[in-house]
């Protein structure tokens, strides 16, 4: 075991005391760093008075953690450099450990997450910067120190990779314009915006390094060819993305205008179809209404005709009954006449007999 040093760059926008406030996540971060989805290997870091304690998951009890190594805080600079010292140490088999050549990037970014929020990119994109480690101490307040040179080189590599990705996007977009729909082309245009925001974010943060008072050599007018090239790549990357932004912004606006026009055409087409269907429905309803009225009239006429016919039938039946009654009455007239005659005769006989008796009585009295 031997002593080593690590300088971690914590991106910042303003010059602040480190740490400027209490660490995020309550000063504790845990991450499973296993590459095998079936095996869990969790690392935990804890911040204590600026020192960083690193723990590894216990093999027998996954819920507990064993202390592995301590990073002792030493110094910070206002451009975001934070220096620690530690004693080199590896797990059995050398699968995980720390020395002057090895410092797990995941641990660097876990520590960075205690003091820095990823404003302009996803967490996965943060692994593009590797930590500066050394056997010898480094003065982070010295002009053009090795840690500053390291991170400017790392940043140059990061923006160059983004430039290459942007060039691929441009070529792909141009090809898409020839043979694909506006929707696919617009999606390709919009994918650039995320890269553009990332570059601007990198530029905002790296200004604390590139424009730091400690950087006296890495400039466009530097006599050192390597440093001059690095300065050119760093500055020109942002200019290149600004130009691409104008290019893609115009394309996006045009694509959006096409999309708006297409949507308007679709809406007009839907409106016309709806109007046609409404008219068709109205005509159909009118036909049905007329048909219903006609059917009602037919039914009414039929009902009247039926009533008339029924009335005629009833009249005929009544006439028949009337005739039958008349015939019956006629058949009864003769017997009635005879009866009347008999009754008349009887009445006459009774009247005659009474008269005779009355006359006989009158004669007796006279005698």
Low-confidence stretches: 123-127, 356-367
Query: How would you state the average pLDDT, rounded?
Result: 78
How many individual helices?
4
> Kindly, what is the distance between the CA atoms of the first and last residues, rounded to a whole number of angstroms?
196 Å
Structural class from helices and strands? alpha+beta
DSSP strand count: 9
Rg from alpha-carbon coordinates = 58 Å
Specify the overall morphology: elongated
Domains, number: 2
Q: Give the SSE string.
A: EEEEEEEEHEHHH
Strand content: 5-15%
Strand order of the biggest β-sheet: 2-3-4-5-6-1-9
Helix content: 55-70%
- Sheet bearing the most strands, described? 7 strands, antiparallel
Protein described:
With 367 residues, the protein is α+β, with helices and mostly antiparallel strands. The protein folds into two domains: 3-134, no CATH class; 146-275, Up-down Bundle (Methane Monooxygenase Hydroxylase, Chain G, domain 1), CATH 1.20.58. It has four helices and nine strands. It has helices at residues 105-112, 146-179, 182-210, 225-366; strands spanning 3-9, 28-32, 42-48, 51-57, 65-76, 81-87, 89-90, 97-98, 132-134. A seven-stranded antiparallel beta sheet has the order 2-3-4-5-6-1-9, with helices on both faces. A hairpin with a 6-residue loop joins strand 7 (89-90) and strand 8 (97-98). The chain is elongated, with a radius of gyration of 58 Å. Residues 123-127 and 356-367 have low confidence and may be disordered.
């Amino acid at each position: 075991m031997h002593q080593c040093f690590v300088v971690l760059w914590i991106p910042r926008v303003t010059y602040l005391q480190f740490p400027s406030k209490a660490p995020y996540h309550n000063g504790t971060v845990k991450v499973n760093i296993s590459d095998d989805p079936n095996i869990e290997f969790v690392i935990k870091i804890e911040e204590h008075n600026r020192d960083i304690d690193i723990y590894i998951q216990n093999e027998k009890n996954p819920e507990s953690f064993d202390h592995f190594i301590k990073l002792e805080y030493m110094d910070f600079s206002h451009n975001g450099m934070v220096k620690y010292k530690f004693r080199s140490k590896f797990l059995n088999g050398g699968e995980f450990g720390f020395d002057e050549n090895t410092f797990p990037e995941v641990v660097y970014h876990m520590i960075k997450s205690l003091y820095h929020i990823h404003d302009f990119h996803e967490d996965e994109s943060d692994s593009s910067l590797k930590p500066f480690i050394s056997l010898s101490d480094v003065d982070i307040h010295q002009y053009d120190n090795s840690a500053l040179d390291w991170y400017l080189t790392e940043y140059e590599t990061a923006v160059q990779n983004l430039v290459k990705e942007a060039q691929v996007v441009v070529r792909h977009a141009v090809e898409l314009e020839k043979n694909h729909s506006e929707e696919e082309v617009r999606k390709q245009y919009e994918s650039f915006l995320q890269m553009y925001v990332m570059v601007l974010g990198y530029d905002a943060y790296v200004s604390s390094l590139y424009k730091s008072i400690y950087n006296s050599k890495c400039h466009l007018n530097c006599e050192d060819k390597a440093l001059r090239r690095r300065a050119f790549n760093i500055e020109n990357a942002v200019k290149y993305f600004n130009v691409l932004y104008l290019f893609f912004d115009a394309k996006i606006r045009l694509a959006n205008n096409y999309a708006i026009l297409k949507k308007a055409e679709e809406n007009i087409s839907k409106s016309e179809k709806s109007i046609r269907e409404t008219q068709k429905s109205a005509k159909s309803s009118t036909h049905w209404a007329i048909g219903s009225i006609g059917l009602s009239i037919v039914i009414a006429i039929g009902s009247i005709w039926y009533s008339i016919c029924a009335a005629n039938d009833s009249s005929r039946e009544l006439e028949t009954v009337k005739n039958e009654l008349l015939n019956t009455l006629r058949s009864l007239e003769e017997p009635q006449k005879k009866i009347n005659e008999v009754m008349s005769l009887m009445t006459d006989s009774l009247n005659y007999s009474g008269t005779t008796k009355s006359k006989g009585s009158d004669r007796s009295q006279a005698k």
